[in-house]
């Protein structure tokens, strides 16, 4: 697809991978809306990069409906949904709680599913569209302390494969991007970006991978793409 003039919705677009992706796509001519739960942060980020701000929580069904209402009123057409919003937690098996599962799954799984369902309705009518789900290397490889987070990304990977098979006949490409560790604010309670490290990935690397996957001619697509740091040790 052509990035220029494409209408793109990115959840969790105020920081990290979401913001880097929005910034890169806008620089190449796309019309981009970003969502975020914090109104002040969302509007500030949108002003700085030239995006449309939508204050919304993907875990809230009413916010999901309003997100699409605002987006379609502004742009009239949706070309790409990037399901980037995500949260995480770390803890050994005996430490995990039902509340932690619910909190993480409401965003990483249920929220992504609700966003995807609304996009699917639009894409079926258009007979065209693209969905990119931001997974993780944890979506294919569990790790010690990752019971809640890794399982949520395994679930997202499974949903991606289901959507892919449901939507191909409508000319909809569904793709999963699995980054390994990225120096973002992910997992930090203060929501401050971590400092860059020369041996770690940045949001920019994932943004370029997303852009490259989208730019593949519409006759083909990359179902799943892993992005690893070359030498993180």
TrEMBL record:
Q: Which GO terms describe its molecular function?
A: oxidoreductase activity
Coiled coil region boundaries: none
UniProt keyword terms in alphabetical order: NADP, Oxidoreductase
**Assigned EC number:** 1.-.-.-
Q: What class of enzyme is it?
A: oxidoreductase
Key word Oxidoreductase present: yes
Q: Which InterPro entries match?
A: KR_dom (IPR057326), NAD(P)-bd_dom_sf (IPR036291), SDR_fam (IPR002347)
One Pfam family per UniProt: adh_short
Q: Which family does it belong to?
A: Belongs to the short-chain dehydrogenases/reductases (SDR) family.
What is the protein name for this chain?
A: SDR family oxidoreductase
What is the organism of origin for this protein? Pontibacter ruber
């Amino acid at each position: 697809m052509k990035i220029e003039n494409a209408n793109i919705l990115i959840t969790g677009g105020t920081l990290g991978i979401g913001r880097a992706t929005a910034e890169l796509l806008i620089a190449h001519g796309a019309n981009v809306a970003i969502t975020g739960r914090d109104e002040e942060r969302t509007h500030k980020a949108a002003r700085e990069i030239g995006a449309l701000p939508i204050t919304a929580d993907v875990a809230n069904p009413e916010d999901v409906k309003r997100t699409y209402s605002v987006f379609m009123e502004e742009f009239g057409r949706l070309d790409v949904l990037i399901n980037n919003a995500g949260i995480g937690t770390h803890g050994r098996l005996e430490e995990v709680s039902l509340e932690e599962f619910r909190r993480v799954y409401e965003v990483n799984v249920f929220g992504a599913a609700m966003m995807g369902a609304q996009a699917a309705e639009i894409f079926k009518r258009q007979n065209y569209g693209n969905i990119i789900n931001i997974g993780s290397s944890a979506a294919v490889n569990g790790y010690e302390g990752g019971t809640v987070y890794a399982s949520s990304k395994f679930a997202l990977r499974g949903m991606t494969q289901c959507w892919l098979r449901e939507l191909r006949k409508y000319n909809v490409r569904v793709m999963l991007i699995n980054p390994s560790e990225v120096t973002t604010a992910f997992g930090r309670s203060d929501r401050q970006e971590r400092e860059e490290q020369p041996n770690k990935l940045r949001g920019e690397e994932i943004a370029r991978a997303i852009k490259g996957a989208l730019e593949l001619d519409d006759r083909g697509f990359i179902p799943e793409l892993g992005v690893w740091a070359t030498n993180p040790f």
